[in-house]
Amino acid sequence: MILEIDCGNSLIKWRIVNNHNDVIVRGANQQLQQILVDINCYQAPLQFCRLVSVRSEEETLQLIDHIKNRYNIPIKQALSKSESLGVINGYNDYTRLGADRWAAIVASYQYSQTATVVLGFGTAITSDFIDKNGQHLGGFITPGLLLMRQQLLSHTSRIYYDETVAKMLSSTDKLLGKSTEEAINSGCHIMIQGFISQQLTLANKYLGQSFKLYAHGGDATHFNIPNISHMPDLVFSGLAFLCPFSDD
User: Among 18, 54, 136, 225, which residue's beta carbon has the most beta carbons within 10 A?
Assistant: First the structure.
């Protein structure tokens, strides 16, 4: 069994897969200590751990040390590289590209083997362009839905926003807000929908008319994106490509 961990900005996601990459169990939590408890509750004969992290070095090392001490198994951490599996990192300083983002970029190109756009919908929304030869051209980062709402509310003290009401509303860009909650939700949604539309326009400019389009992350299904392939586990897929398991 293989333990896979994706330590994101907000959530730490984990899953246990067998040697055929079938998912046995998965979970997610914001707190590192709770993740450790959850993993310990599952009595699996773990052979290997691979992880990707954008958390602090202290938190990441704490997690690695716990797994080493608890399970006594080899651990590999995916890091952003200048080149991996035929994909060339387009950042001026490749170490500054988030490792989870790099994992998604590498995985998407392994699947497509052609020009590709990867959209990630997490705390931030990311967009990355890869040409048909595997050259990462760069990308964009913008606040995600939750972060956008939080920033608006934290800087406008007189706005009344009922979270309970907001959670009952569906995300839509067709609704003219008739309450503060509706107006904020629809406004944030339509801004991100516009960002997505611009990415498709830019993809035609930089990649031509023919390219693959992948999306991952919790909010990906909230938006209308034509010809998109939703791959919620794309980062985990990239993790498997970057940190393969060998029982030799």
Answer: 136
Q: Which long-range contacts (CB under 8 A, 24 or more apart) does 80-88 make?
A: 84/241, 84/242, 85/109, 85/110, 85/241, 85/242, 86/134, 87/130, 87/134, 87/136, 88/134, 88/135, 88/136
The model's pLDDT over 122-147, given as tens digits with 9 standing for 90+, comes to 888 999 999 999 999 999 999 888 78
Could you tell me the domains of the chain?
A: 2-78 (3.30.420.40), 83-234 (3.30.420.40)
DSSP state of 170: P
Give how far Cα 107 sits from Cα of 38, 156, 222, 238, Å.
27, 40, 23, 4
Catalytic center residues: 100
